[in-house]
Design a protein that fits this description.
Elements: H1 2-17, E1 41-46, H2 48-53, H3 55-64, E2 67-70, H4 76-79, H5 89-101, E3 104-111, H6 118-121, H7 125-142, E4 149-154, H8 167-172, H9 176-187, E5 192-197, H10 205-219, E6 226-229, E7 232-234, H11 243-251, E8 256-267, H12 272-290, E9 295-300, H13 310-313, E10 317-318, H14 331-336
Parallel strand pairs: 1-2, 1-9, 2-3, 3-4, 4-5, 5-6, 6-8, 7-8, 8-9
Antiparallel strand pairs: 8-10
Helix pairs in contact: 7-9
The structure holds ligand G3I.
Ligand G3I binds near residues 72 and 309.
Length: about 350
């Protein structure tokens, strides 16, 4: 679908260059937006409150990206903090915005150990299984046909490649993953179904475990369509070794791959040298995705340093996004889109 949109845009740009005025083509003063320089979906995590309250935030998002991922608004702890009492306000607002502006949505996320409501942790195995099934059916059902891709299972591995001891793993055992994908396919057959994780960008024990799992799920006929690589990088830890080869080996299993939460944090304060290293990391992430035909999406975890999860979690780190706090493009942006 993105390919068709891309071709239409390319024609529009050619027409504009030929001197014909088109109302919604990039303003002459701006560079060509990121979303117009690639056949991949280019996305950002978004927060409904910023979308509603900050016109400049909304404007840059609308101009530069053609995918949005709700940063928190679709998580179980947000939509059903109390059992059977749903709050869809933030999720609805983002999906409505996406429909109004012609953007795709990545749903995030259905089965995750974090941001889980307390009541889910307290269920015994049989109830938990029904609750997961019901949660998937309810949330995917609400947005049926409106979400291009869903992060069905999120962050299920430890860094050593063993399975995280989540409430799902403890009470339901290994089968919870295949069950979740089958329930997800039944809930919205049009959505691409992903498994998503961090520290899996390079070749390592965790990505090996993920690779083995995806290979087995495919062999068993479990409906999995894609693998998401979050790509929360930090300049002090180096660029993930074997990144492109890793994406390629997953793609060779017959699944799509996507960069789903990219950011590159730096030790504060930022300076020109650190921003140049950051730019280099973003460029490598971008190029590696573009070197793999089945890499279909490049999404960043927020786009402005004004709003980022990083300083809350790593107080001495920050400045992880493509745009600064004043929404000016940083070297990382211009490196990708000169
Ligand atoms: O909305 C409440 C607010 O009402 C309350 O006053 C405040 C007090 O702490 O908390 C607010 O909720 C916070 C929420 O973000 C919205 O800002 C939560 O405490 C906070 O834990 C939550 O953090 C999110 C985090 O996931 C939770 O694990 C981050 O925004 C979000 O960026 C982050 O995203 C994750 C992806 O989902 C999965 N991959 C890693 C990524 C980064 O950690």
């Amino acid at each position: 679908m993105k390919n068709t949109i891309f071709r239409i845009r390319a024609v529009a740009v050619l027409v504009a260059v030929a001197g014909v005025t088109l109302s919604n083509v990039t303003p002459a003063s701006a560079a060509v937006p990121l979303k117009n320089i690639t056949h991949r979906y280019v996305g950002s995590a978004v927060a409904a409150n910023h979308l509603a309250n900050e016109a400049d935030y909304r404007s840059v998002l609308t101009r530069e990206f053609d995918n949005v991922t709700p940063e928190n608004e679709m998580k179980w702890g947000v939509v059903e903090a109390t059992r059977s009492h749903y709050d869809w306000s933030g999720a609805d607002a983002i999906v409505d915005y996406a429909r109004r502006t012609g953007k795709s949505v990545r749903g995030h996320t259905l089965v995750w150990h974090s941001q889980l409501p307390g009541w889910v942790n307290d269920l015994e195995a049989g109830e938990l299984r029904s609750a997961v099934k019901q949660h998937i059916a309810t949330e995917m059902g609400r947005y049926k046909g409106k979400i291009r891709a869903w992060d069905v299972v999120n962050e299920m591995f430890n860094d050593d490649g063993t399975r995280r001891s989540s409430v799902f793993q403890q009470k339901l055992g290994d089968r919870y993953v295949a069950d979740a994908f089958r329930w997800a396919r039944a809930a919205d057959p049009s959505a691409k179904l992903y498994i998503n994780d961090y520290n899996t960008e390079g070749l390592n024990a965790k990505s090996d475990a993920l690779y083995d799992l995806v290979r087995k799920l495919k062999k068993q006929g479990v409906p999995i369509d894609g693998v998401g690589f979050q790509a929360h990088l930090a300049t002090q830890y180096g660029f993930p070794a074997g990144y492109q080869a890793n994406l390629a080996r997953f793609a060779a299993l017959g699944v799509d791959v996507a960069i789903t939460e990219a950011d590159v944090r730096i030790l504060m304060p930022a300076d020109a040298a650190k921003l140049a290293v950051q730019a280099n990391y973003f460029k490598q992430l971008w190029d590696g995705c573009h070197a793999v035909a089945r890499c279909v999406e490049f999404t960043t975890w927020g786009f402005t340093d004004r709003h980022s999860w990083v300083p809350d979690t790593f107080p001495s780190e920050g400045a992880a996004c493509l745009f600064d706090t004043n929404l000016r493009a940083k070297p990382a942006y211009t490196r990708i889109n000169p």
